[in-house]
Amino acid sequence: MDGGHSHSGSRNSDSFVVKVAEEKQKWPVSSSQIVSHFGTSGLSVAVATAITHPLDVLKVRLQMQLVGQRGPLTGMGQVAAQVLKKEGPKALYLGLMPALMRSVLYGGLRLGLYEPSKYACNLAFGSSNILLKIASGAFSGAVATALTNPVEVLKVRLQMNANQRRGSMAEMRTIVSEEGIRALWKGVGPAMVRAAALTASQLATYDETKQVLIRWTPLDEGFHLHLLYDTI
Prior knowledge:
Layout: H1 2-25, H2 31-64, H3 76-86, H4 96-112, H5 114-125, H6 130-160, H7 168-179, H8 188-216, H9 223-231
């Protein structure tokens, strides 16, 4: 009788060990994959930022024209012509360094946190349905924005000040000394909401569509699958 209990306990113990081992094997990404994903995500966003930065400068100038005043607003073409005429082509790259820094950090965090967040939801709720994917995307986008908001504030300040001759660090010290550390998080609330909505819609849709393609096509996870999704 005791022997039966002993064998039963041994089997239960063995099954528990196997179950734990299987749970550990379910971890979908290794630490090296997370680092690689973070690096490639940040690098790709940084390249896109470097190419499109002049448009970002024009966007900020358009948003800030006639602040606190009334009057006719000028279009993007006119603003671009004014910037080139009065400030020169270099003005279109004001704030480039903090923009690149933010791109690497924000792009890496936004995309790099998604898979771990989705896995945590799977552990907590036993599922990774579309709603949890949306929540994972919203969380990663909001966290990435909250952490990188100081660099965004610095970038906008540099873009608006054509006569600025100080570097990024000197401008950062000026902001902190004159306005306080909280000034680096101005506008963080709306920025987090926007990033959460954007990241949730992008990554959840991408993830779900990718799973559909895996189920309904002979493609496996890899370059060709991602290329097919991007062409849809």
